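Q: My collaborator sent me two sequences in one message, no labels, and asked for predicted structures for both. Can we handle them in order? The first one she listed is below.
A: Yes, handling them in the order given. First sequence, followed by its structure tokens:
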Amino acid sequence: MAVPSPCVKDCCLDKQDVCLGCGHTVNEIIRWGDASEEEKLEMLVASKKRKEKRAQKYNDF
């Protein structure tokens, strides 16, 4: 089964070069097309953690 792309077609990078839409780093975005399924799953886990961390940061206000 192919790992679906997390892209929401709303790319906007923050100061750390992380997409505000999908949570991927620029490097992950570039690598996605050539990555193995295992690598894609690892990237999804990492991007989910980044998005959760960002959401928590703003929920603290």
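Q: And the one she listed second?
A: Here it is, processed independently of the first:
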Amino acid sequence: MRRTNYNNTSIMNLKQKLISILNKLPYIRGIYQDNVIFKRNSCFPPGHFYSTIVSVDDVKNRQNKIWSNEDIDGINGVDLNVDEQIKLVKQFEKYYGEIPFTENKNNNNRYYFENEYYSYTDAIFLYSMIRHFTPKQIIEIGSGFSSSIMLDTNEQFFNNSINLTFIEPYTDRLKSLLKGNDNKTTTVIEKNVQEVNIETFEKLNHGDFLFIDSTHVVKTGSDVNYIFFEILPKLKSGVLIHFHDIFYPFEYPKDWVFMGKNWNEDYFLRAFLMYNNEFEIRLFSHYLHKHRKEVFNNMPLCYKNTGGNLWLMKK
């Protein structure tokens, strides 16, 4: 029998032909393309100790320890400013009876409570913060249902006097919320925040809002990096800053981690706040629901959803 000699070139050609044949099968093609993308963007598999993507099996084995601090009132190195939080929530009670929002969508408001993105406590706090601090400007990074609260509150209680700036690269949802006259009092910047000049944020003054609902991911070149490293240091004293999807004690909900949400902004924010004398916590909704839930007795709609908002003020 004649022995066939295969050199490296012929082996590679054979491999490419085999890949070409297999890629004609939709299921195989999808797996192959996913593998190519993975190898291009990471040298470590998910769950590897060098990977930022957690091993769900490992986390499940240690879940009792990882989430053991939820019931502890207090975090080492972080001033929760509890007394001031409670005082501020008590101030909100006078605005509660005038909340214009309803459970389901109607023709009077852009916003409604029953949505999965920004619900009850989140919405009530944002509405109340606007009523209480009466900002002249709000810059929002990451737009959506929260934008509709700003637009409705501005229209119904401030005669559209608040200047609203929305920074959002994917604007379909936002534009669906805007009415004919909104363009006079709103600015829409269709960019990633990393592409927005820092001077935009330096215009915020005492009592103005920087509302952040980011990608929640710290990584090379991310929006979270830009916000913490470039924007926050440039803010003036008295500017109020909102972060979303922040949970006490700066740990993501167990079911989120188990479903594969590998966000890490919570941890980064905790490290930022430890021994930090330049920024103070004004509100932390999930903390209040966990450890001071009686503060909501006169605002019962808050009990329908804990929210995930954290409000800071730059001193």
